[in-house]
Amino acid sequence: MGIGLGLDERIAEAIELAADSEAQILSIAVGTRGEDTNYQEELDRAIAKAASNGKLIFAAAGNDAHNGYRATTLALQDGAVGVAAVDRHGERAYYSQHGPFIGLAAPGQEIPRRCSHPDGAVCLQEGGTSAASALASASAALIWSANPDWTKNQV
Fold this sequence. Notes:
two-stranded antiparallel ribbon, 3 helices, 29% helix
């Protein structure tokens, strides 16, 4: 697979590299809706390869449900866990994609981060399904580190 300028192609290439690595968990917190259909087969193949190599794959579902857009292509892939975002009450965040392809949800609103204030204050931000995917994958990593003999499905 050559390096190109299309986002879908670069994502597929990154997933393929991770599929051949020692990593056990992939957190894909970038969205694509498959507009670049020339690379849809490459995305499909990359996710399938990573899944068959035992990788636990989390994919952000997308933040445009309130605008009527469909979920990101990666969250819809067989072998990937689609991650939605919830608010502080455990309710679906208004922007989060939802549907039968969602494997789980994690906090995606009011995510603490360091502010640009000189005093190093902590601010809350709307992190979206990317933040939710990162939190889900980090939680899975902690679970897997405590249970190294488990399979990805057990995690």
